[in-house]
Amino acid sequence: MEKRVSEVILRNVELLSHMSEQEVGMMPATEAPLPSVEQVERIVMLVKNIIFPDYTGKRQSDESIRSFSIGEYMVELQRRLTKQIAHGLQFCEDCEQNKTKEWAYKEAERLSLDFIDTLPEIKRLIYTDVQAMFDNDPAAPNYGEVIFCYPIINTMIHYRIAHRLHELRVPVLPRIITEQAHSVTGIDIHPGAQIGEYFAIDHGTGVVIGETCIIGNHVTLYQGVTLGAKSFKYDELGNMLNVPRHPIIEDYVTVYSNASILGRITIGHHSVIGGNIWVTNNVAPYSRIQQSKAVQSSFEGGLGI
Predict the structure, then answer these.
(1) Which domain holds residue 139?
(2) Does the pLDDT value for residue 98 go beyond 90?
(3) What's the pLDDT score for residue 155?
(4) Residue 234: what pLDDT?
(5) Do 65 and 98 reside in the same domain of the chain?
(6) What angle do CA 28, 31, 37 make, to 5 degrees?
(7) Are residues 145 and 277 in the same domain?
(8) For labelling, which of 62, 135, 159, 222 has a CA lying 20 to 30 Å from the CA of 81?
(9) Pairing of strands 226-228, 266-267
(10) How far apart are the first and last CA of the chain?
């Protein structure tokens, strides 16, 4: 048996060590290190420490001590983020053709500092999300429970970090960050989506928000909502085009569970979309879209279903 174990392992090591043509085609042209998922997780945690220092670390009433702690987190954040952006830049299709290590780290340092400059605004937006969730859920007894327990807050921290990096045209990292939240909460938000302030998702499982969605302020979604594309456009060579294809949701809209809103349509402000609705046309402001009234029927022996 030991001989067979050795033979099987050696044979498959040899087979799997050979890079297939398909595998080579899927790898970046350079041999630089790739981004680390574990390091990206640490980056998100550092941002959480900066935004919610009293919830993720020891509470400090002394502002000078609090300032020292946040400063330490920020220095670590800048260092780690620079390195991961530099690794991710090898996926950049619009960057210089002859990307060198020196260029990548210089560009990554600039981008990491640009990101850190937006942390105050990211913090402001996330606190509006906390407020929106607290205001929309009578089961929330206090802000602390919302911050600690509600999946939307974890999701929005990841999304707002990722969206800013996406705006800075950082490759790969934004998608890693949103998919980390997706895998934990079941809420799938593309980093390219534009989401305003005071955004709430109650429960959250199964929510999908596509790349070109535009969502206004004070919007509330419930579980299972899909803001997706209805169809895709192709060029003359049959390649899929990345054009606006997801809905625009204006201010003060509520969308109830399992509704599907598809295509580049607009849901007017102050509208309510009922549960289990399929919407593919524009909706005027102040509308209420609901299912048709239920039809009562009797069935016998399975007939008529």
Answers:
(1) 35-186
(2) no
(3) 97
(4) 79
(5) yes
(6) 70
(7) no
(8) 62
(9) unpaired
(10) 59
Q: Would you say residue 18 lies in a domain?
A: no
Residue 177: closest CA among 157, 195, 194, 203: 157
Cβ burial 38-56 (10 Å sphere, 16+ → b, else e): eebeebbebbbbbbbbeeb
Measured from the Cβ of residue 204, the count of other Cβ atoms closer than 10 Å reads: 20
Tell whether 302 is covered by a domain: no
Question: Which two three-digit tokens encode residue 138?
Answer: 């009578």
Per-residue pLDDT band for 295 (boundaries 50, 70, 90) equals low
DSSP category for residue 118: T
pLDDT at 190 over 90: yes
Domain of 92, CATH number, reads 1.10.3130.10
User: Is the distance from CB of 236 to CB of 253 less than 8 angstroms?
Assistant: no
Q: Same domain, yes or no, for 147 and 213?
A: no
Per the model's pLDDT, the better-predicted residue between 236 and 143 turns out to be 143
Under 8 Å CB-to-CB from 238, ≥6 apart: which residues?
none
Q: Are the CB atoms for 183 and 192 separated by under 8 Å?
A: no
Distance CA 289, CA 241 (A): 31
Predicted local confidence at residue 147, as pLDDT: 94
Burial 62-83 (b: 16+ CB within 10 A, else e): eeeebeeebeebbeebbebbbb
Strand segments (E) across 63-199: 188-189, 194-195
Spatial contact of 245 and 230, defined as CB atoms under 8 Å apart: yes
Indicate whether 140 and 54 sit together in one domain.
Answer: yes
The model's confidence at residue 298, banded by pLDDT at 50, 70 and 90, is low
The length of the chain in residues reads 305
Cα distance between residue 202 and residue 289, in whole Å: 19
* pLDDT at residue 55 tops 60: yes
**pTM confidence score:** 0.88
Whether 211 and 182 share a structural domain: no
Domain CATH for 264? 2.160.10.10
| 181 and 44 within one domain | yes
Residue 62 has pLDDT above 90, yes or no: no
Q: Which two tokens stand for residue 116?
A: 């850190």
| Number of domains the chain contains | 2
Categorize the per-residue pLDDT at 252 as very low, low, confident or very high, splitting at 50, 70 and 90: very high
